[in-house]
Specification:
Blueprint (H helix, E strand, L loop, with lengths): L19 H18 L4 E6 L2 H12 L7 E3 L8 H4 L18 E9 L3 H12 L5 E9 L11 E5 L6 E7 L5 E7 L7
Parallel strand pairs: 1-2, 1-3, 3-4, 4-5
Antiparallel strand pairs: 6-7
Length: about 190
């Protein structure tokens, strides 16, 4: 980061100059605080795939009972016709009764809010939870829907032609990969 808070130019290897592990530690502290101050029990549910990785590790490191849930919102996305089914074979798995439950959704990147809208639709297909909160690793701004995270390890705006995704190595350590989209040519 530069002194004025703007992100430095991305290196040529496609890695972002952000320490994903340090951000994860901040997210873990925030989730621990949300769990301590919130209703009990609260169930962690990770949004596939990066959020599911985070929820799995958080659940293990915080010593929570049971197992975390995973939610896949592919069929509820408003761009399903363009994207179709993702290559992933992930399926929603909620190992608790959703009706009346307190849920803490975990996601890697919050951007427009459209994925979270689809996630909420998928969650409500399983029942009506008593409460739903959201913790994210990175809030990159650019909201199109009125969605806000209860906790974010960092808020980092990016230009619309850039995005990043969470990467998990074989040891379970996190990093970020920067993705560049070529803007469409006009005319």
């Amino acid at each position: 980061m530069t002194h004025d808070g703007e992100r430095d130019a991305a290196p040529t290897d496609g890695r972002l100059p952000l320490d994903a592990e340090a951000l994860y530690a901040e997210l873990r502290r925030a989730v621990q605080a949300l769990l301590a101050a919130g209703p009990q029990p609260t169930h962690l549910v990770g949004v596939a795939s990066g959020g599911a990785w985070l929820a799995e590790r958080l659940h293990r490191e915080l010593g929570l009972p049971g197992e975390p849930g995973v939610i896949v919102a592919t069929l509820h996305r408003d761009d399903y016709a363009q994207r179709g089914l993702a290559a992933s074979t992930a399926q929603t798995r909620l190992p608790f009764e959703v009706e009346g439950a307190h849920v803490l959704l975990i996601d890697d990147v919050l951007y427009t809010g459209r994925t979270l809208r689809a996630v909420l639709n998928e969650l409500f297909d399983y029942g009506r939870p008593a409460s739903v909160r959201l913790a994210v690793l990175v809030d990159r701004g650019g909201r199109e829907l009125p969605v806000a995270a209860d906790a974010a390890a960092v808020r980092l705006p990016l230009p619309a032609h850039q995005s990043f995704e969470l990467v998990r190595d074989g040891d379970g350590r996190f990093s970020f990969s920067l993705l560049e989209r070529t803007p469409p040519r006009l005319g």
